[in-house]
Amino acid sequence: MLKKRIIPCLDIKDGRTVKGVNFVDIRDAGDPIELAKAYVVQHADELVFLDITATVEKRKTFAELVEQIAAEINIPFTVGGGINTMEDASLLLNAGADKVSINSAAVKRPELISELANRFGSQCIVLAIDTNFIDNEWKVYVHGGRTATYKNTFDWAKEGEERGAGEILLTSMVNDGTKAGFAIDLTHQMHETVNIPVIASGGAGNIEHFAEVFKNAKAHAALAASIFHFGEVKIPDLKDYLRTKEIPVR
């Protein structure tokens, strides 16, 4: 069995790490470079760095910050936010990111997934899906969760896989920031839908929630933000707990 990954997520706004609830009510969570370095010490497996307003404000993720992070840490990290073209992705990967995460631009022009996968390899391409449960259906949202689309979440994930995405970063907007637990049914259905790794995101509140999403939803990785940023859960403690539940971790 593949070992499960623990991934802190750093949402970036104006050069600072922030965290919200249900994609709103944003508050400051610290300096992204210092947090990233701390997570290396705690043995995080990867990091995700998202410029959460880049798409909405029509600006690119700051390549300078990516370079600074790459110079300070030695674990893989993914960068997303405002990636609309091959040039955007190339800039960030050349700056030191290991993977790029695409969302709104891929929904607008699905061919982007194929173009990036063909150029950089599927292992570098993460399809991020923000989803909300509307009218008894999980629907895809774009622009940082601000705009609903007509797309069914599972159909879109399958198309993304077929076009070359290497992973799905699945965020439940219903659960995001609530600390009430991951969306187990949603994540499990996604695991059944695609044959690429699924990263569960949204709702982590305690160490038990990670065990649930790994055991019951079959997630390959679990992502969280505030419980790590504010010291509510320490990654070494989390990994020790998961081992007691016979869940393989790195």
Give structural notes.
With 250 residues, this protein is of the alpha/beta class. It has a single domain, classed as TIM Barrel (Alpha-Beta Barrel), CATH 3.20.20. It has ten helices and twelve strands. It has an eight-stranded parallel beta barrel with strand order 1-4-5-6-7-10-11-12, surrounded by six helices. β10 (167-172), α7 and β11 (198-201) form a beta-alpha-beta unit. α1 runs parallel beside α2 and α8 (207-215) crosses α10 (235-244). The longest helix has 11 residues, at 153-163. It starts with a strand and ends in a 6-residue tail after the last helix. 44% of the residues are buried.
* Principal-axes shape call: globular
Let me know the CATH homologous superfamily: Aldolase class I
From N to C, what is the helix and strand string?
EEEHEHEHEHHEEEHEHEHEHH
CATH-scheme architecture: Alpha-Beta Barrel
CATH topology description: TIM Barrel
Q: Helical segment tally?
A: 10
Q: What is the SS-derived class?
A: alpha/beta
